[in-house]
Design a protein that fits this description.
- By secondary structure, this protein is α/β, with parallel strands linked by helices.
- It folds into two domains: 205 residues, inorganic pyrophosphatase (n-terminal core) (Alpha-Beta Complex); 125 residues, Diaminopimelate Epimerase, Chain A, domain 1.
- Helices cover 41% and strands 18% of the residues.
- A hairpin with a 4-residue loop joins strand 7 and strand 8.
- The protein is globular, with a radius of gyration of 20 Å.
- It binds guanosine-5'-monophosphate (5GP) and manganese (II) ion.
- Guanosine-5'-monophosphate binds next to strand 11 and strand 12.
């Protein structure tokens, strides 16, 4: 955020405001962690805050401080619309295109006269925010909330609950501090969070070690369905609606599956295609190691986006057609993916 915007925002936040904080559709640890952290912080500045996410978030995040106060737009439309109508500022966190909140909410936001403030680390931000804090070099929006508090001169307000939310966002978006987005600054921030008394081991356990037997069985199916395209150093997984239903799929169950593709020797590009009959789409996640830019790939072929090494998208075609389209698309990237 530039100095002019920061000063203006500081002045604006000098008196109590009604503030809505929005996360993206399919909320992950960073979306939930960053929105809750910001909300708890702004409440300490005497603002009235409402956190809204478009649809439900996984159970493995439902222990988070104040997570039960989050309005899920699909379920709490009336309350959420009321909060949006009465807001004097709308924060959008962990996304940078209004299309990321789903069509209905997107229309409402586009018609709103309320100023927006963006905190986000994805590529190519859209220009809807009066106050824009966008930095693609930072591993997570949660870490940006820490820096935002720092810029506001409010780090002394950082408490254990805020720290817990920030830690969860950083941990989940960095694959537990192993992706290249994890910097010395990330570790310094995390050191501070641990000094504030967060229980980092328990947070890890709550997020990663609460698997249901069904999820493990579904992972087995995913492994069975894994296809390796040796000459393109690419691996992909498919999961059909039937397979998801067989193992009583719950939100978040497929989180992280795509990363197994990348853990295979020589694989540079991994994808997972997940059928969603209710929405009539195939939801896709892309991951890469090194220079292959999955953000551009997702944008070009699958109405998506994200980061250089982690992105997502969707397709309105059948699972089979989507995969064959993917394989066709790959042919244009042989030079980048194949061994020299
Ligand atoms: P995931 O594969 O874990 O759902 O998402 C990976 C990254 O890509 C995240 O940063 C996420 O916000 C972004 N992403 C996922 N799906 C979409 C999409 O449909 N559109 C856009 N623009 N970004 C996406
Ligand atoms: Mn994020």
């Amino acid at each position: 955020m530039n100095k002019v915007q920061l000063t203006a925002l500081k002045t604006f936040l000098n008196t109590p405001k009604n503030i809505v904080i929005l996360g993206h559709k399919g909320p992950d640890g960073d979306a939930v962690g960053s929105t809750l952290a910001l909300s708890i912080y702004l409440k300490k500045l005497s603002h009235n805050t409402t956190v809204i996410v478009p649809n439900d978030f996984p159970d493995f995040l439902k222990w988070m401080p104040q997570s039960d106060s989050i309005l899920i737009y699909e379920k709490h439309k009336e309350k959420a619309n009321f909060a949006i109508e009465n807001a004097t500022l709308i924060f959008t966190l962990d996304f940078n295109s209004l299309s990321r909140v789903g069509e209905e909410l997107q229309t409402i936001l586009e018609q709103s006269q309320t100023p927006f403030a963006m905190i986000d680390h994805h590529q190519l931000p859209e220009a809807y925010a009066t106050y824009q804090y966008s930095d693609v070099t930072i591993c997570s929006t949660a870490q940006m909330v820490y820096h935002f508090m720092e810029m506001m001169g409010d780090l002394p307000l950082l408490d254990k609950d805020i720290a817990t939310c920030i830690y969860t966002g950083i941990m989940t978006d960095t694959g537990s501090f192993r992706f290249s987005s994890t910097t010395a600054t990330t570790h310094k921030v995390v050191a501070h969070l641990i000094e504030l008394g967060i229980d980092n081991a328990s947070i890890h356990q709550a997020v990663y070690d609460t698997n249901s037997p069904n999820r493990m069985q579904l992972l087995g199916v995913a492994f069975q369905n894994l296809v390796i395209l040796n000459e393109l150093n690419t691996a992909y997984i498919t999961l059909s609606q039937e397979e998801l239903d067989k193992y009583n799929f719950q939100k978040g169950d497929t989180e992280g599956f795509v990363n197994y593709g990348l853990s295979i020797k020589n694989i540079k590009f991994a994808a997972i295609f997940i059928e969603n009959k209710q929405e009539g789409i195939i939801k896709i996640s892309f991951r890469s190691i090194g220079d292959f830019n999955v953000n551009l790939f997702a944008r070009k072929y699958f109405e998506g986006g994200g980061h250089n090494n982690a992105a997502g998208g969707k397709s309105n075609h059948s699972l089979k057609e989507t995969v064959s389209q993917f394989i066709t698309n790959l042919q244009s990237h042989k030079n980048e993916l194949a061994n020299e």
